[in-house]
């Protein structure tokens, strides 16, 4: 390969890439070339998964349940990004080349896996390549401004094309030829080395460019990218596209930066299943034109996650002309972030929005703001930018792992999405009794529930494939070949549809050395998952139970999965011993993993250690099916990892360890072991160097430094560190530190040192302070005090509107409150809104109030931002017992007023809290204090209809019964407005109540009752001797006028029937009640009035108009007829009687109407 590169030294990297693609295409047959050309369309991110699924489809016939496709994913993502880069930024022939690279990679993989028997080995190599593949999000932004980046990418993909060319040639050989060729790994390793070299160069260039961008070198970097005149427009266009790419990345990062792909890949590798295709409900859901929901339910370990991972693949294999989009999320029990609604919604939105070329709309709507914690904000922004007509599949696994609050937020969001978008949701749930299933089926649209069968047809194939794999790899050794049939039959019979159970039994059988032991195990297989876990832990931990416990504690308590190297260092820490001694480092982390049997697994791609299933953590820490691992508790696990973290950070060697590799000669005999060990980094590296040292003993001039550099591959002089656990400890120390042992002085000192040396790192993270509750509960008050004191160095460290004491009060954590007060926290210090005592009252937390009242220096009258004191808050709507508790201190001022002028009494009266009103009056509350709108307690009680409170206040001699608010309304007027007859009866019976009090426009209670159509109230008031029936408002209107003008016939009748009512009273414009009714066409009211002999029909208003004239002028002809002399006596007839029709339009205004001029209006 190197010779081929030397032959054309003058060609640019881009030209050599073009040449390599051309040579690849030229080597294909006509049939192959046709297949190759079909895949030249620019690939999308979904094409990566589609291709990995196609690989598995080709392999499924050869390898059964084994799944290799995900191993290619990282590498394919790098190729897809390069192709997309060409499509967006390069254009022209270069675009064809970039897409050609994707096409030939796709062609090579599908061709090779169809004929080769070395897919396992090859996929493993591609997985290794994928770890360093150029998959940088910012690459589209920086590409136009970096010639080096363009060259390095071209060089990388030249090697990719050569590798594909080699594999195609190998695949075309006979089976024997393939076997012969595959014996020599030098060529493949050469490709891999070259790819890693160029990937490293790309990473370095990306770091440099990003640093320059962040340092303000943007314009300088642009000026370095020169074009001739005819290319200036293209250069400008590229810069615009690069800016759009930057905006898009910023918006996508606003939605989520969580790695959602790894979980799906890990689960997908577990195997293939076609169970979903056997269910008609799945096909109906998949083909549905409208929003709907499919829910798969199954018992623990029944393969729900694997099923959904396969469904994601199946949906991506769509061959539709416009394939639907697929978004998925697999919750991880060991990553807390993945169990939050914000993370899940943001990740789903990002997957869908990344398919859009322009996200300017979302950016303009604030999509790139820092307000990223609101699920409502996420949902709103997503729905603004996403097309409602786009058919979209959502696949969600593991909702059971989220707590109920997060689940409800998610389901509510899913419902909103289904109403706005054509959204088809597929969800998995455990079959165990829970409220989630019924809640989801009620909320989501068109729900179908599919229970997984206990006799899953796929489990037979799974057991067979796994047994085959173990036999091939010599993991399972048997003497009697027929024993394998007995093993298979026993596992199929005992699995009861649980893939996890079957997999664990197979791994357990692999550890057995004799047929007798295997047969004995088959005769006594565990009945369920819990029993399986118990047996594995008992057997694997018998050799070193302490190491087993420590390993499980660290793995299960970690905030994220630890890598093997991180775990190795963590397990090597002796809690409390801060003297770093590399000789005590655990040489082989796998010895610790062996102590846990097969319950812990190492991911082949990420090298992270995790529980084989979420139920392992549940069983060990919380219990499962009424069974629990009893060797340690969740508190023990938290404490162990916390002690390890603070001890590790206390080593004090990290400041000096970060340095560039320097190849100074080291004499073997004088090299301290600490230098050698710090230079190593892994046990395999140490092993290789040890072998070289053995061989060098006879060579006195042997250069140890050169050997170290060769073994470690440090010629590129990158920054190195021997401490792999440091990054985790530095990131998560605050989450762990509250769990440290409180009764071990060495640990306490190390914890104090960690806090004091990292004061500036203390985050605004309430979750960290929650852990302080644990510390307080376990007697570690000193730690809580230290954290609180450290937080004083930062303004509003925990929340911009709170203090640590207020936060603890709001969470109801009395233990933390005690600790903070003991540490010297100000019991009266207010946040932006609340005072501590008021906050406790607001929560209705009686015990917290009692605790604070006992604190020295407590100010019981402290007020919050709204000037609400504790007694005001309590009186408003809290338990009466808290009101009594506060008043019993004898220090409460019950007459304090809030910013709105409210007192505890006005609040209590306005809420109808009779008992609280009694208490406040007994403790000196002034019943006549008014709020900002001049309302007293009596007015508020009357306003809201609280009769018992009004009764209590009316009978209090100190209450001003006739006080008025800003509108001039008294308690009586407010009672009339509220419409309470019982309350009005109560008030009118009191001789001190002014029944004729007027509001600001001169209205009395009677007038307001009349215009409110309250006939019973009017009757009650009219019949009272002290009520002024003819009182007038500022506009001269009486109660009768108001009722007549509104057409309230029953009210008018009550007033007309009272002999003391002035029927002819006139307002400021000379209008009478009759005129108002006539002018507005209220026929019934007119008839009532004209039937009364005391009503003057000829009275004129200020404009000289009579009632008849007004009716006519307003064209109320039917009403006007009752005012004509021939029919006045008919007004008392029943309402259904109609007068004869009369043409009155042609008559003089005041002329008597003779009978002979009657005409029939029906003819007009």
Automatic annotation (TrEMBL):
Q: Which UniProt keywords apply?
A: ANK repeat, Repeat
Write out the ranges of the repeats annotated as ANK.
800-832, 900-932
This chain's protein is named Uncharacterized protein
Question: Which SMART domains does the record match to this protein?
Answer: ANK
Establish whether keyword Nucleotide-binding is in the entry: no
Q: Where is the DUF7708 domain?
A: 73-211
What Pfam families does the entry give? Ank, Ank_2, DUF7708, NPHP3_N, WHD_GPIID
Which stretches make up the GPI inositol-deacylase winged helix domain?
A: 551-634
Segments forming domain Nephrocystin 3-like N-terminal: 278-422
Q: What InterPro entries does its record include?
A: Ankyrin_rpt, Ankyrin_rpt-contain_sf, DUF7708, GPIID_WHD, NPHP3-like_N, P-loop_NTPase
Q: Which organism is it from?
A: Alternaria arborescens
């Amino acid at each position: 390969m190197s010779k081929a590169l030397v032959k054309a030294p003058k060609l640019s990297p881009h030209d050599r890439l073009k040449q390599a693609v051309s040579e690849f295409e030229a080597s294909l047959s006509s049939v192959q070339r046709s297949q190759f050309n079909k895949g030249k369309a620019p690939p999308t991110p979904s094409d990566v998964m589609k291709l990995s699924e196609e690989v598995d489809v080709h392999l499924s016939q050869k390898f059964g349940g084994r799944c290799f496709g995900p191993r290619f994913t990282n590498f394919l993502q790098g190729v897809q990004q390069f192709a997309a880069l060409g499509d967006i930024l390069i254009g022209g022939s270069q675009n064809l080349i970039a897409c050609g690279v994707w096409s030939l990679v796709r062609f090579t993989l599908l061709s090779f896996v169809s004929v080769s028997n070395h897919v396992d080995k090859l996929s493993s190599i591609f997985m290794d390549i994928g770890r360093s593949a150029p998959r940088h999000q910012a690459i589209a932004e920086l590409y136009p401004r970096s010639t080096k980046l363009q060259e390095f990418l071209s060089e990388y993909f030249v090697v990719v094309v050569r590798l594909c060319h080699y594999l195609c040639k190998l695949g075309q050989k006979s089976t024997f030829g393939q076997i012969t060729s595959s014996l020599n790994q030098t060529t493949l390793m050469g490709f891999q080395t070259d790819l890693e070299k160029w990937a490293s160069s790309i990473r370095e260039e990306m770091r440099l460019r990003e640093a320059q961008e962040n340092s303000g070198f943007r314009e300088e970097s642009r000026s370095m990218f020169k074009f001739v005149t005819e290319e200036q427009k293209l250069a400008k266009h590229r810069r615009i596209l690069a800016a759009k790419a930057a905006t898009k990345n910023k918006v996508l990062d606003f939605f989520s930066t969580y790695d959602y792909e790894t979980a799906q890949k890990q689960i997908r590798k577990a195997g293939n299943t076609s169970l979903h295709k056997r269910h008609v409900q799945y096909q109906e859901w998949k083909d549905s034109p409208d929003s709907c929901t499919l829910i798969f339910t199954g018992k623990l370990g029944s393969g729900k996650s694997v099923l959904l991972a396969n469904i994601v693949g199946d949906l991506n294999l769509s061959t539709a002309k416009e394939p639907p989009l697929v978004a998925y999320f697999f919750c991880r029990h060991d990553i807390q972030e993945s169990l939050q609604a914000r993370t899940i919604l943001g990740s789903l939105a990002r997957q869908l929005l990344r398919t859009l070329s322009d996200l300017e709309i979302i950016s303009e709507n604030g999509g790139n703001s820092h307000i990223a914690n609101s699920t409502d904000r996420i949902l709103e922004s997503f729905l603004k930018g996403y097309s409602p007509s786009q058919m979209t599949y959502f696949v969600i696994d593991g909702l059971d792992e989220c707590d109920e609050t997060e689940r409800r937020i998610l389901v509510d969001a899913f419902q909103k999405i289904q109403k706005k978008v054509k959204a088809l949701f597929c969800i998995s749930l455990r079959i165990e009794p829970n409220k989630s299933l019924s809640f989801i089926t009620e909320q989501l649209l068109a729900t179908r529930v599919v229970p997984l069968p206990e006799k899953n047809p796929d489990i037979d194939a799974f057991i067979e494939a796994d047994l085959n794999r173990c036999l091939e790899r010599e993991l399972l050794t048997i003497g009697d070949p027929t024993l394998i049939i007995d093993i298979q039959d026993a596992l199929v019979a005992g699995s009861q549809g649980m893939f996890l159970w079957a997999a664990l039994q197979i791994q357990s059988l692999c550890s057995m050395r004799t047929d007798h032991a295997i047969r004995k195990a088959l005769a006594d297989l565990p009945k369920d998952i819990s029993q399986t876990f118990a047996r594995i832990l008992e057997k694997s931990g018998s050799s070193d139970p302490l190491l087993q416990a420590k390993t499980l504690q660290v793995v299960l308590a970690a905030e994220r999965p630890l890598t093997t190297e991180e775990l190795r260092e963590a397990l090597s820490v002796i809690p409390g011993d801060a003297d770093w001694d590399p000789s005590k480092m655990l040489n082989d982390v796998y010895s610790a993993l062996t102590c846990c049997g097969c319950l812990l697994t190492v991911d082949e791609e990420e090298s992270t250690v995790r529980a084989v299933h979420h139920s392992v953590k549940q069983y060990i820490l919380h219990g499962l099916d009424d069974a629990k691992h009893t060797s340690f508790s969740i508190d023990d696990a938290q404490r162990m990892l916390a002690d390890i973290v603070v001890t590790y950070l206390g080593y004090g060697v990290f400041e000096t360890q970060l340095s560039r590799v320097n190849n100074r000669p080291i004499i073997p005999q004088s090299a301290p072991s600490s230098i050698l060990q710090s230079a190593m980094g892994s046990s395999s590296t140490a092993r290789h160097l040890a072998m070289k040292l053995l061989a060098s003993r006879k060579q006195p001039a042997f250069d140890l430094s050169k050997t170290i550099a060769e073994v470690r591959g440090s010629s590129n002089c990158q920054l190195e560190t021997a401490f792999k656990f440091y990054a985790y400890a530095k990131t998560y120390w605050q989450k762990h530190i509250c769990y440290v042992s409180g009764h071990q002085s060495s640990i306490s000192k190390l914890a104090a040192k960690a806090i004091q040396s990292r004061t500036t790192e203390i985050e605004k993270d309430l979750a960290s302070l929650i852990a302080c509750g644990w510390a307080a509960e376990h007697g570690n008050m000193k730690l809580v005090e230290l954290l609180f004191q450290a937080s004083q160095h930062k303004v509003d460290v925990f929340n911009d509107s709170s203090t640590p004491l207020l936060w603890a009060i709001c969470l109801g954590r009395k233990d933390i409150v005690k600790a903070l007060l003991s540490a010297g926290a100000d019991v009266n210090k207010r946040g932006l809104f609340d005072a501590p005592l008021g906050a406790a009252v607001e929560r209705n937390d009686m015990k917290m109030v009692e605790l604070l009242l006992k604190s020295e220096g407590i100010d019981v009258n402290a007020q919050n931002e709204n000037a609400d004191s504790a007694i005001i808050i309590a009186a408003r709507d809290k338990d009466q017992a808290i009101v009594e508790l506060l008043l019993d201190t004898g220090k409460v001022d019950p007459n304090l007023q809030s910013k709105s002028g409210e007192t505890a009494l006005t609040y209590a009266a306005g809420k109808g809290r009779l008992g609280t009103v009694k208490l406040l009056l007994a403790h000196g509350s002034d019943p006549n204090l008014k709020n900002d709108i001049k309302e007293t307690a009596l007015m508020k009680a009357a306003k809201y209809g609280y009769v018992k409170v009004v009764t209590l206040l009316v009978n209090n001699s100190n209450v001003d019964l006739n006080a008025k608010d800003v509108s001039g309304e008294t308690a009586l007027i407010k009672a009339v407005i509220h419409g309470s007859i019982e309350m009005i009866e109560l008030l009118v019976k009191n001789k001190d109540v002014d029944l004729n009090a007027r509001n600001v426009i001169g209205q009395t209670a009677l007038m307001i009752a009349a215009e409110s159509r309250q006939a019973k109230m009017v009757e009650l008031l009219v019949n009272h001797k002290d009520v002024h029936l003819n009182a007038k408002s500022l506009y001269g209107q009486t109660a009768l006028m108001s009722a007549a003008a509104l057409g309230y016939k029953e009210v008018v009748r009550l007033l007309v029937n009272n002999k003391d009512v002035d029927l002819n009273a006139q307002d400021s414009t000379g209008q009478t009640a009759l005129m108002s009714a006539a002018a507005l066409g209220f026929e019934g009211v007119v008839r009532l009035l004209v039937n009364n002999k005391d009503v003057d029909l000829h009275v004129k208003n200020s404009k000289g108009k009579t009632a008849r004239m007004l009716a006519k002028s307003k064209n109320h002809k039917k009403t006007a007829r009752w005012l004509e002399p021939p029919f006045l006596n008919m007004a008392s007839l029943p309402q259904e009687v109609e007068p004869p029709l009369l043409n009155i339009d042609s008559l003089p205004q005041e002329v008597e109407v003779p009978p002979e001029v009657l005409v029939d209006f029906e003819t007009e």
